[in-house]
Design a protein that fits this description.
With 275 residues, the chain is an alpha/beta fold. The protein has 10 helices and 15 strands. Helix 1 crosses helix 3, helix 5 packs across helix 6 and helix 6 runs parallel beside helix 7. InterPro entries: Carb_Metab_HTH_regulators, DeoR-like_C, DeoR_HTH, NagB/RpiA_transferase-like, Tscrpt_reg_HTH_DeoR_CS, WH-like_DNA-bd_sf, WH_DNA-bd_sf.
């Protein structure tokens, strides 16, 4: 963490959150010195992080929030976390998609951001178990008016299933639909990533649906910001070496990057060369 009076609030809070997670807690007076800002500014930052459920405030500082491995935040709660990082990841991931290909997008706020960046890629076939992702393409197709689809608009296949708090459709109905399909590229949002647990989710049914998505894809791309590193949900559904590429943001520490690249072929960080 470096002194910088010009850090945006979002950047400053990301640094604070990283420090909390790395050290297991921070004190206000330490943060004021390291970030070269006022005591009041740091307290506002901690208040904001606490409201988002990212830290727990204690006397004089903050500590990590310890969540149960079964806790599954809703879509709206997750959508306010790391919005800039998710948009950068989405923009970079969209560049991997060629016109006319068949792709799949799992549920999640990062895949939702990705869907918006794919609207101008022509003639895609999009398989998704995300109600939110499907809505992005549906609304774009209707934007021209007259009830006619835009030229080159994506063909969208939305699986059925039981809806999760993050607006993904999971369970036997979704799994059966996915098993009958084959796509060139899967973009997978995840709850947590770690070397030991691999990719994980707090939802048992979603774990099986994600396995089905991975089996039906020629190439698997995880889209997840740095805050997912070290998080472990109830159910692991894949090891890191089953992933072809992880598109993440610059907040992922260098030491972690080296560890990740020992287990998967590609680590892509916006604005940097591929590892």
């Amino acid at each position: 963490m470096t002194d910088n009076q010009n850090l945006l609030a979002e950047q400053r809070r990301a640094l604070i959150l990283d420090e909390v997670r790395r050290r297991g807690g921070v004190r206000v007076n330490e943060l004021t010195r390291r970030l070269n800002v006022s005591d009041m500014t740091i307290r506002r930052d901690l208040d904001a992080l606490a409201r988002q459920g990212m830290v727990a405030k204690v006397h004089g500082g903050a500590v990590p929030v310890v969540e149960a491995s079964t806790h599954e935040p809703g879509f709206e709660a997750k959508s306010v976390l790391e919005p800039s990082a998710k948009d950068e990841i989405a923009r970079t991931a969209a560049a991997l998609v060629a016109p006319g290909t068949a792709i799949a997008l799992s549920g999640g706020t990062t895949t939702y951001a990705l869907a918006r960046h794919l609207l101008d890629v022509p003639d895609l076939t999009v398989v998704t178990n995300s109600v939110r992702v499907a809505d992005v393409f549906h609304e774009a197709q209707q934007s021209g008016g007259g009830g006619e689809s835009r030229r080159g608009a994506a063909t969208v296949v939305l699986t059925g299933g039981v809806r999760t708090p993050s607006d993904a459709l999971v369970g036997p109905v979704a799994d059966r639909a996915i098993r009958s399909l084959h796509f060139d590229l899967l973009f997978l949002g995840v709850h947590g990533v770690s070397v030991e647990a691999g990719l994980s989710t707090p939802n048992l049914a979603e774990a099986e649906t994600n396995r089905c998505l991975m089996r039906s894809a020629r190439r698997v791309v995880v889209v997840a910001d740095h805050t997912k590193w070290g998080t472990v949900g109830l159910s692991s559904f894949a090891a890191l070496d089953e992933v072809d590429t992880w598109v993440t943001d610059r907040g992922l520490p260098e030491g972690v990057r080296a560890e990740v690249t020992e287990h998967l072929p590609g680590l892509v960080v916006p604005g940097e060369e591929q590892a």
